[in-house]
Amino acid sequence: MISQLRGTTVALGPNWAVVDVGGVGFKVSCTPATAAGLRLGTECTLATTLIVREDALTLFGFADTHERAAFELLQLASGVGPKLALAVISVLSPAEVVTAIQNDRVTTLIRVPGIGRKGAEKIIVELRDRVGALAADLDTAAQSGEQISSELWREQVSSGLQGLGWSSKDADAAVEKIAPLVADNPQISLGRLMKAALQTLARA
């Protein structure tokens, strides 16, 4: 299994990227936030998982291992395939997925397009006893003090937005609007910040 890619980003789309690793270009499907965090011509590292089907081999890329773990966990629920699992982590952070499952928060899961109340209830019932490992990993990461630099995140989010076509002015304005999220939660992921910034720009 291909569990990680490290190479140069040579092509980007709204929910995919091509990473050149030693002259071989790997196309990965990813969330819009993950794609927005990449920049053409620069090195990147993605956690990955390969989905094998009779008619296709699809590589999925993630901003970190927690996001990948949530993606893989969700597919343990009946009726949840890679496409829907990717939709979930495009809307919810791994921590939000864990909290929704552990605390029966159906309303959180139905924020994801394609998941209705019955589907959300099924996911919660089927994954309640399986979510412990991811929850423990997230707790360990938080306790170890994993957090993004107060200055670095601004540059990364702004660069990611500009890479998607937004002007530097709009990107910087979006960064300022989401700054309170970092103040409230220093452990917040870059992917989550990108999602919030994109939502801010969409509303504008």
From TrEMBL:
<dbReference type="GO" id="GO:0006310">
    <property type="term" value="P:DNA recombination"/>
</dbReference>
<dbReference type="InterPro" id="IPR003583">
    <property type="entry name" value="Hlx-hairpin-Hlx_DNA-bd_motif"/>
</dbReference>
<dbReference type="GO" id="GO:0000400">
    <property type="term" value="F:four-way junction DNA binding"/>
</dbReference>
<dbReference type="GO" id="GO:0006281">
    <property type="term" value="P:DNA repair"/>
</dbReference>
<keyword id="KW-0227">DNA damage</keyword>
<dbReference type="GO" id="GO:0009378">
    <property type="term" value="F:four-way junction helicase activity"/>
</dbReference>
<keyword id="KW-0234">DNA repair</keyword>
<dbReference type="GO" id="GO:0048476">
    <property type="term" value="C:Holliday junction resolvase complex"/>
</dbReference>
<dbReference type="Pfam" id="PF14520">
    <property type="entry name" value="HHH_5"/>
</dbReference>
<dbReference type="InterPro" id="IPR012340">
    <property type="entry name" value="NA-bd_OB-fold"/>
</dbReference>
<dbReference type="InterPro" id="IPR013849">
    <property type="entry name" value="DNA_helicase_Holl-junc_RuvA_I"/>
</dbReference>
<keyword id="KW-0233">DNA recombination</keyword>
<dbReference type="InterPro" id="IPR000085">
    <property type="entry name" value="RuvA"/>
</dbReference>
<comment type="function">
    <text>The RuvA-RuvB-RuvC complex processes Holliday junction (HJ) DNA during genetic recombination and DNA repair, while the RuvA-RuvB complex plays an important role in the rescue of blocked DNA replication forks via replication fork reversal (RFR). RuvA specifically binds to HJ cruciform DNA, conferring on it an open structure. The RuvB hexamer acts as an ATP-dependent pump, pulling dsDNA into and through the RuvAB complex. HJ branch migration allows RuvC to scan DNA until it finds its consensus sequence, where it cleaves and resolves the cruciform DNA.</text>
</comment>
<feature type="region of interest" description="Domain III">
    <location>
        <begin position="143"/>
        <end position="204"/>
    </location>
</feature>
<feature type="domain" description="Helix-hairpin-helix DNA-binding motif class 1">
    <location>
        <begin position="72"/>
        <end position="91"/>
    </location>
</feature>
<dbReference type="InterPro" id="IPR010994">
    <property type="entry name" value="RuvA_2-like"/>
</dbReference>
<keyword id="KW-0238">DNA-binding</keyword>
<dbReference type="Pfam" id="PF07499">
    <property type="entry name" value="RuvA_C"/>
</dbReference>
<comment type="similarity">
    <text>Belongs to the RuvA family.</text>
</comment>
<dbReference type="InterPro" id="IPR036267">
    <property type="entry name" value="RuvA_C_sf"/>
</dbReference>
<dbReference type="GO" id="GO:0009379">
    <property type="term" value="C:Holliday junction helicase complex"/>
</dbReference>
<comment type="subunit">
    <text>Homotetramer. Forms an RuvA(8)-RuvB(12)-Holliday junction (HJ) complex. HJ DNA is sandwiched between 2 RuvA tetramers; dsDNA enters through RuvA and exits via RuvB. An RuvB hexamer assembles on each DNA strand where it exits the tetramer. Each RuvB hexamer is contacted by two RuvA subunits (via domain III) on 2 adjacent RuvB subunits; this complex drives branch migration. In the full resolvosome a probable DNA-RuvA(4)-RuvB(12)-RuvC(2) complex forms which resolves the HJ.</text>
</comment>
<feature type="domain" description="Helix-hairpin-helix DNA-binding motif class 1">
    <location>
        <begin position="107"/>
        <end position="126"/>
    </location>
</feature>
<dbReference type="GO" id="GO:0005524">
    <property type="term" value="F:ATP binding"/>
</dbReference>
<dbReference type="GO" id="GO:0005737">
    <property type="term" value="C:cytoplasm"/>
</dbReference>
<dbReference type="Pfam" id="PF01330">
    <property type="entry name" value="RuvA_N"/>
</dbReference>
<protein>
    <recommendedName>
        <fullName>Holliday junction branch migration complex subunit RuvA</fullName>
    </recommendedName>
</protein>
<keyword id="KW-0963">Cytoplasm</keyword>
<dbReference type="InterPro" id="IPR011114">
    <property type="entry name" value="RuvA_C"/>
</dbReference>
